[in-house]
Design brief:
Aspartate Aminotransferase, domain 2; 2 domains; globular; 7-stranded mixed β-sheet; single chain; 11 strands; about 375 residues; 12 helices; about 10% strand; alpha/beta; Aspartate Aminotransferase, domain 1; two-stranded antiparallel sheet
Length: about 375
Amino acid sequence: MQAFLPFTRPSIDEATIEDVGAVLRSGWLTTGPRCQALEAALSARFGGRPVRLASSATATLELGLRLAGVGPGDEVITTALTWVATGNVILQVGARPVLVDIDPATRNFDLDQVEAAITPRTKALLPVDLAGLPVDRQRLYDIAQRHGLRVIEDAAQSMGANWAGEEIGLKGDLVSFSFHANKNMTTAEGGCLVMNNEDEARRFERLRLQGVVRFPDGSADVEELGGKCNLTDVAAAIGLGQLKQLEGFNQRRIALAQRYFELFPRDLGFDLPLADFSQSNWHMFQPLLPVGVARADFIARMREQGIGIGVHYPAMHLFTLYRKMGHFEGQFPHAEDVGRRTVTLPLFPAMADSDIDRVCAAVRLALS
């Protein structure tokens, strides 16, 4: 029997494993020289912009909102189709998430609906690059500039992706990337925020570690409430190794996605994602099940053939927490349709071409 094929698996090379061992032997495990090195490497990648690490991209989104001055009484416009953390961080700072439906072609939020949702209380826009396909940055920032809004980019899934040839993170306002274990590069858990200036970076450093400011004489002060979300050097050592391989990882993902498009059994009635091979980093490959096919049955039949399937993501407004805020079924029909029918098929750099062949054959058998 063939080995089980998960929907994702990180690729960690021996050099990275050795460097993690060196950190463990050093005795300095928490935030230290490896974190500084990774922040510097990321800053160089993003044109010298300040970059700071945190223990998750959820934390970097929340701190990004705080840096943008978002708080109680404010509204932040975001998408109904995303991991729930995107909405939860808005609630966490006391603001109100204003959800809009998606463009069914890109599965990112519909920018026409974004502009229509702006009110005098709107403080920021929070776009999500679903599956690594970037939101139209030109239109996004045209809207933000016309209305005087901050932008906190949830680029959790789009490390290495680009808009019109310019890598995500090189420009823009506040840009948050995730380094979770299933992302295109990982630190096991973690994330970073790309900022505009050193003042923002210094405040980010305070906020990620209880708001503490330390002075040369050993004394300290706390001027505002912070939290505890610093990254460890153990995690940063993984990230340094991953960053060196990111281009190769992404090119392999693109090649695998192209093979999916060549071999996928289109006659079965699936809706395939937008075939963008110039801007997307192909974080995930997500066809939509044919109407009427039960997702639970499909997942079970694929597992019987040794293939793991993910679900990313249910429409956020249908969760109980968001229904309590007044959201309801039928409110965002495109997000609901994608949320109900989406399945995430295996896609990670260590896969062989033959693995794609195997998945496509299994899909046909699962629906036969």
